[in-house]
Queue: 3 jobs
Job 1
Amino acid sequence: MATKHQQILSYIESLPLGAQISVRKIARVLGVSEGTAYRAIKEAEVEGLVSTVDRIGTVRIERKQKAQIERLTFAEVARIVEGTVLGGRDGLHKTLGRFVIGAMETEYISRYLNPGSLMIVGNREHVQRMSLKSGAAVLITGGFTASSTVERLANDYQLPLISCSYDTFTTAALINRALYDRMIKKDILYVEDVMPTQNLVTLHPTDSVRDYYHLVEQTGHTRVPVVDEDGRLVGILSPRDVAEADPSGAIATFMTRQPVTVTPKTTIASASHRMAFEGIEMMPVVRNRDLIGVLTRQDVIRALQIMSRQPQVGETVEDVVVRDFQQIWSGENQVTLRGQVTPQMTTSGGTLATGALTTIIQEAARVCLRRVRHVDMVVENMTLYMLKPASVDTVIDAHAQVLDYGRRYAKVEVVVRDKSDTFAKALLTAQWIER
């Protein structure tokens, strides 16, 4: 039987796009507490089913697939610019194709208007009307409002009419930054992107240990999830659990309860870290306690290989910090990263910030391990000693050396210095996943 949480999510998913959702309404319709309704709505927001807009509320939107993740809904645009929706609320769930700045002569504007676009304009009412009639939503900058005629057009065409207090340049920059962040997010691999969706093998608590052995022989999988009659994960069974078990005994007696799990929205980087840290080969993938798949170490390795070959469209903070550093092979088990301390890496006092320093150190250790063993590492522990501040424009070397390594771990020392001074030293303990 589905839980109340699952019933609420199913109800939200059944609502038409653009429908408004409230905690009180769901609590009243489904007969649940407001606390339960609130938690389910937040889960629906994480799942991409709804979006919350200030002064409007929560709106049902279309769940975005990976290929469309970089597209913003008008509801999200309103939240990004801290805007007020003046009309066209029924169109908040629609997605933004592109935005146009209405700073040109009227006769030229029509060339750039098409359905799904967003016109960013001030108090030029004739441009607002032209945009809505062409199928484009309107974002009014400068804190201006709209006439009743424009509001009526927005409602008739179901196109959002939004007003914000920012100037046109700032508004466009905010939207562009959000789109840029989405492009980065699109490049990130999640468990749902690599998780196999077929041949899911499970056991039930009432099955016997003998059934487990037969399943291992058939599939070759030694770690098997255990689910109840509703498909909810209740445990996991491995050879260690049944090493001395009676073959006729029920597996509920021997299974490991509360196993380590991941969700479909867990990043591959996070999943690989947990696998290395826990020393496990497979993790169940759950959504609202329901088992929907499993993630194996082979899946993670394949995803890491894809990530290493993937062209990055947008730059993360880590990319900005290390993009101009050069790799220098400085000896056996040793690598040096050489680069300049740029203003973006510094504190307000003009010295290398701790966050940027840590990023450089971890990158040096990662490059070193790739050279030595061709592996990806997950940092388990790092001890950092700050000796002297490194000033802006200083050319620094991050010299990494593998001190010791075994089958699953490595110890790496990193020294950050220039020609005359040593700025920091660090000792990293890392586990790795071989490709």
Job 2
Amino acid sequence: MKTRPLNMPYRAIIADDHEIVRQGLRTALETPGMVESMGLKVVAETANGIDTIAEVKIHKPDLLLLDIAMPFADGTEVLPEIKRWSPATRIVVVTGSNGGGLVCNLLETGVDGMFYKGASLDELYRKLPLILRGGRYIADPFLQAMEKQDAAQSLTARERQILNMIVTGKTNKEMAELLFISPKTVDKHRTSLMTKLHVHSLVELLAYALREGLIDPANISGQS
């Protein structure tokens, strides 16, 4: 179990695009006795994926409370970068999406906790001490979704990035520039993810991703 000096609170970042959610979580985390006896220290709040990555790089917090559906770069794109820049940060996802495909991919990426936004937050507050000290906790709605998940092969972190960029209407060239890889490599990842999902067109890809909760409908750009 992870030990810390008695006078050193855990440090946290809250990433959610709704200010009222961030305020509520911050109040709970910082209140002595709600989660930890001396409370946690919230070092930053962010409302989009790009800012979340930047703040994590700066602070390298003990805990990141992360919403999956955020502007600019959603949680599934943020996760690999968090693991890259701050591997010791405990990542807890709080989301209203519980598609089986999404759950499997989040777990594969290495999240330490998953909690459902539609449920009482009491469960989150009770389980955070366990997660902060190295444990893992997945709430029942996500476990049930995993049981219903078919045998489709999970996407890699890079394939998920490509999928989310396709959804927002980016071209292969634009994706290559953002990911610092060649357009040929982008096309390879794109072909691989469509093969894994057993789809043959962009329309089929979007329909599958929506059905399985792999993407947020709000992120979909107009596609030709």
Job 3
Amino acid sequence: MKFLLTSSGIRNPSISDALVDLLGKPIAESTALFIPTGVYPFPGGAERAWKAVHGPAHIPLCQLGWKSLGILELTALPSIREENWVPAVREADALLVWGGDVLYLTYWLRQSGLADLLPSLSDTVYVGVSVGSIAVTPYNCDAEFDLGFVPDGSDMAQGADRALGLVDFTLYPHLDHPDMEDVALSDIQKWASGIPVPTYAIDDNTAIKVVDGTVEVISEGDWRLMRPSAR
């Protein structure tokens, strides 16, 4: 699988060019499935999911002019025959994975069976936005925040600090965003100091491109790479 891990969507020409390069053809000739699942735990989650598809393109993703665009709702997949959704995933050129709650998203990626399917999708481009990007890394930088949205009695909180680990680095989005807490470089460095893999801190004009394990930073903004301390 090929990855384009963004902080805030396809925000500038450099990230757009990287997406086209990964697709191997123009966006207008490419098909995509949009995964809104991660946003549901938050108040107004259903409205946020709708706006991600039909609202203003302040986080450009669904509105890029895809040849076709469908919805892949992870919470529905366990109740659907695999032969009725797996072929659609395999045929899609891109999976567009929205932000929200890392813990909830990774839980449903696993429960739905999509997490097991992803490594076999060698030609598919996984496009993450914020939490959708964090989900494929080994560690969840939002674990403490996410625990506040776990329903009473749920087992979802188990392993809250871990994500899928489909790439060998972790990611902290929205570097120095003025409207968000705990995204100053000093905050991210503090968190990254306890993580045994490299951490990329990226702002909203930066993305991480990964092909066959090779990592490339695509940026018209600011980013930092923090390597684990020697033990």
